[in-house]
């Protein structure tokens, strides 16, 4: 990375740091502002979900029958099935991973070469090997060795159990539902965000209009916070810039 790029990054970092400082000074003594409720399909960066779909089946009725081919059930219930409907997602995450790896490798090699007879005598006279007490029979000697050792371990544990109401934002051609839900809780000067999004099958929605998070395909679950505590835990912009630039 040349000096011009480094100077540009430092300048932008300083500008962002100044803006962030002004924002923080302006919000001194005030609680974090909650996000306004809005249609998620109108937010910047929203992309409708497109997945491989089977051929659509025409909706037909049989004579003297109340059943239709596109019906998901004979009796109507109150479970979410249309855009705008609400269902409750029960988020349960309890993951534990432990991995230990040990690697050792070593290699030793010894090579020697000498010259005898006429060539040995010529070598001794040309290099003065006889005066230095060097045996021309073993005039060249190579010894090499390589030894590597590596240890690695992963010990991770995550636990989260909560629930959040989500809204059906899209119905896919095969009947699956695209859901998205967001929950914000403010306690004193700290806001906790819980975001859940993904694709669910209507048949996985339980009778009480809830669905476990393990039944969500392409699940995107985010749990974090913002406020004074989170701000203190984060390194300053200058430190983050130096971590990205310095190679050591």
Automatic annotation (TrEMBL):
Membrane topology: Lipid-anchor
This protein's UniProt keywords: Bacterial flagellum, Cell outer membrane, Cell projection, Cilium, Flagellum, Lipoprotein, Membrane, Signal
Extent of the signal sequence: 1-17
Annotated GO MF terms: cytoskeletal motor activity
One cellular-component annotation, GO: bacterial-type flagellum basal body, distal rod, L ring
Cellular location(s): Cell outer membrane; Bacterial flagellum basal body
GO biological process: bacterial-type flagellum-dependent cell motility
Keyword Hydrolase applies: no
PROSITE patterns documented for this protein: PROKAR_LIPOPROTEIN
Statement: the UniProt record of this protein carries the keyword Mitochondrion: no
Function of the protein: Assembles around the rod to form the L-ring and probably protects the motor/basal body from shearing forces during rotation.
Similarity-based family: Belongs to the FlgH family.
The protein's assembly and partners: The basal body constitutes a major portion of the flagellar organelle and consists of four rings (L,P,S, and M) mounted on a central rod.
Protein name according to UniProt: Flagellar L-ring protein
């Amino acid at each position: 990375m040349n000096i011009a790029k480094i100077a540009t990054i430092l300048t932008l970092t300083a500008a962002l740091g100044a803006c962030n400082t002004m924002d923080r000074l302006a919000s001194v003594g005030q609680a974090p502002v909650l996000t306004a409720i809005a249609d998620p399909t109108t937010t910047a960066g929203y992309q409708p979900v497109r997945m491989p779909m089977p051929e659509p089946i025409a909706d037909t009725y049989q004579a003297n029958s109340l059943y239709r081919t596109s019906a998901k059930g004979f009796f109507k219930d109150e479970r979410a099935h249309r855009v705008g409907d609400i269902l409750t997602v029960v988020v349960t995450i309890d993951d534990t991973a432990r991995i230990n790896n040990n690697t050792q490798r070593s290699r030793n090699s010894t090579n020697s070469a000498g010259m005898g007879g006429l060539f040995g005598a010529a070598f001794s006279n040309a290099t003065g090997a006889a005066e230095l007490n060097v045996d021309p029979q073993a005039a060249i000697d190579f010894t090499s060795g390589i030894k590597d050792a590596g240890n690695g371990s992963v010990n991770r544990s995550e636990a989260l159990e909560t629930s959040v109401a989500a809204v059906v934002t899209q119905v896919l051609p095969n009947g699956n539902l695209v859901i998205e839900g967001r929950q914000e809780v403010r306690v004193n000067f700290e806001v906790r965000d819980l975001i859940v999004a993904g694709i669910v099958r209507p048949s996985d929605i339980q009778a009480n209009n809830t669905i476990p998070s393990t039944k969500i395909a392409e699940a995107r679950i985010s749990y974090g916070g913002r406020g004074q505590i989170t701000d203190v835990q984060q390194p300053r912009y200058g430190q983050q810039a130096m971590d990205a630039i310095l190679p050591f």
